[in-house]
């Protein structure tokens, strides 16, 4: 079945006996920034080069940094055509090829991959602690409606996460989910009271060793009916908050051992009160997850008026990087056997042995920005050209001249984790980046 209207039928749950910076915490409502207008990803504008950071005077020969992209992918038995998801000429679409190519890879469903190993370890904890009552979903389609991703979990209309700068839009009403919370409401409506949702999530973001535009989250929800808290002496929200904390402290001990923990109050649109759990690990406080008592409005809108619930969400890469000593988030996508062969089913916390360290190569790019310039857009262009060879994009200089024009200089680190890059190859990449930055972002190179 080809999806035409970009909706995915939900897959059945698996057999029952499951920052990056957080998107929603620290952003107290209402966020002042409103969604940006849709951005056209391609442009026919030609450009004169003003200067080149690399010494290369002529366009080097072409060599692709990105592998070819399949035209069709499959998730949960649903076939998704590239043309349905990537539409360069549609101003309401901002999904590039390299993002489409990640749909369907589902690292979280590979039992020998660090992300799958971690997912299974969390499943084990819930199965053991709750007699396998949690229903697990890990094959839900990542293409969801704006309503599912934002409205149904009460994300305010002016929240920054809704902007085209932060989220991948397939069209004005459809996005690549930016969190697994997108499935909360539908699963509540379906009558589930204990569930875990694991999946790939997509966010436009900066480029460095801990940020990648696709990563994996797990969401957990537990609903209580009145008979569960009545007689406990506690009111419903306090009862749920107590149970939540006990459950997640147990999970943290299951994954990290006997660590010190602390709870930090925070804000999420879908929970009240909301908390973050931090653990003291490898000599620093580290955020493990976000959670809270589900907003009553979500429950009443979805047929659970008299109930109370808790929910949590955690980023699997963040935790896997620490547990397996994986130094760069790009490695999770490596198909190099020297990476993949180091992990095996059921072995949580085996320490990754770096197989090589090739030198990075730095190239600077400076330009006069426009009002609509954003760093996420720049990073998107760089990734579009260099793919996973782009290790970091960092602002190293920023000034405004007397005429009020603002200049930014970014340092791009190119590095492969598998081989040495040649000068020619890097010059080619930098040339292409300059060309694309000028064409697509309409900035003036310096
Ligand atoms: N959706 C949140 C994020 O992506 C994570 C999260 C926080 C999920 C709190 C929850 C929750 O269910 O209760 O940043």
Automatic annotation (TrEMBL):
- Give the range the annotation lists for the signal sequence: none
One GO BP annotation is: phenylalanyl-tRNA aminoacylation
Taxonomically, the superkingdom here is: Eukaryota
Keyword Transmembrane helix attached: no
Q: Which GO terms describe its molecular function?
A: ATP binding; phenylalanine-tRNA ligase activity; tRNA binding
Subcellular location as annotated: Mitochondrion matrix
One cellular component term from this protein's GO annotations in UniProt: mitochondrial matrix
Alphabetized InterPro entries for the sequence: aa-tRNA-synth_II (IPR006195), aa-tRNA-synth_II/BPL/LPL (IPR045864), Fdx_antiC-bd (IPR005121), Fdx_antiC-bd_sf (IPR036690), Phenylalanyl-tRNA_Synthase (IPR002319)
UniProt keyword terms in alphabetical order: Aminoacyl-tRNA synthetase, ATP-binding, Ligase, Mitochondrion, Nucleotide-binding, Protein biosynthesis, Transit peptide
Tell me where in this chain the Aminoacyl-transfer RNA synthetases class-II family profile domain is found.
Answer: 199-354
- Report the Pfam families cross-referenced here: FDX-ACB, tRNA-synt_2d
Protein's name according to its UniProt entry? phenylalanine--tRNA ligase
Origin species, per record, is Musa acuminata subsp. malaccensis
């Amino acid at each position: 079945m080809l999806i035409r209207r970009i909706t995915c039928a939900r897959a059945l749950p698996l057999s029952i006996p499951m920052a990056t910076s957080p998107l929603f915490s620290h952003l107290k409502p209402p966020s002042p920034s409103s969604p940006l207008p849709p951005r056209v990803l391609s442009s026919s504008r030609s450009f004169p080069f003003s200067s080149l950071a690399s010494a290369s005077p002529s366009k080097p020969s072409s060599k692709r940094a990105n592998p070819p992209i399949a035209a069709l992918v499959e998730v949960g038995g649903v076939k998704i055509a590239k043309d349905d998801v990537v539409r360069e000429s549609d101003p309401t679409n901002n999904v590039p090829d390299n993002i489409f190519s990640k749909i369907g890879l589902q690292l979280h469903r590979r039992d020998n991959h660090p992300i799958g190993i971690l997912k299974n370890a969390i499943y084990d904890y819930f199965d053991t602690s709750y007699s396998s009552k949690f229903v697990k979903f890990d094959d839900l389609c990542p293409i969801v409606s704006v309503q599912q991703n934002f409205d149904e979990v009460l994300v305010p209309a002016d929240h920054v996460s809704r902007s085209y700068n932060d989220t991948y839009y397939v069209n004005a009403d459809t996005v690549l989910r930016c969190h697994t919370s997108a499935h909360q409401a539908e699963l509540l409506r379906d009558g589930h009271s204990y569930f875990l949702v694991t999946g790939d999530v997509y966010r436009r973001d900066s480029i460095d060793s801990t940020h990648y535009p696709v990563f994996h989250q797990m969401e957990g929800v537990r609903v209580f009916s009145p008979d569960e808290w009545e007689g406990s002496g506690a009111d419903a929200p306090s009862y749920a908050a107590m149970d939540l904390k006990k459950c997640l402290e147990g999970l943290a001990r299951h994954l990290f051992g006997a660590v010190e923990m602390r709870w930090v109050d925070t804000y999420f649109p879908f929970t009240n009160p909301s908390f973050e759990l931090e653990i003291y690990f490898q000599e620093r406080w580290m955020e493990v997850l976000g959670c809270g008592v589900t907003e009553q409005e979500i429950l009443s809108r979805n047929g659970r008026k008299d109930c109370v619930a808790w929910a949590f969400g955690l980023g699997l890469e963040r935790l896997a990087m620490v547990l397996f000593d994986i130094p760069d988030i790009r490695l999770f996508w490596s198909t190099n056997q020297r990476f993949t062969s180091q992990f095996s089913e059921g072995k949580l916390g085996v320490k990754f042995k770096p197989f090589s360290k090739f030198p990075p190569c730095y190239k600077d790019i400076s330009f006069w920005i426009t009002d609509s310039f954003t760093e996420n857009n720049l990073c998107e262009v760089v990734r579009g050209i260099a793919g996973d060879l782009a290790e970091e994009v960092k602002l190293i200089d920023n000034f405004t001249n007397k005429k009020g024009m603002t200049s930014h200089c970014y340092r791009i680190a190119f590095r492969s984790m598998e081989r040495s890059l040649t000068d020619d190859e890097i010059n080619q990449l930098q040339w292409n980046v300059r060309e694309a930055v000028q064409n697509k972002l309409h900035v003036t190179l310096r």
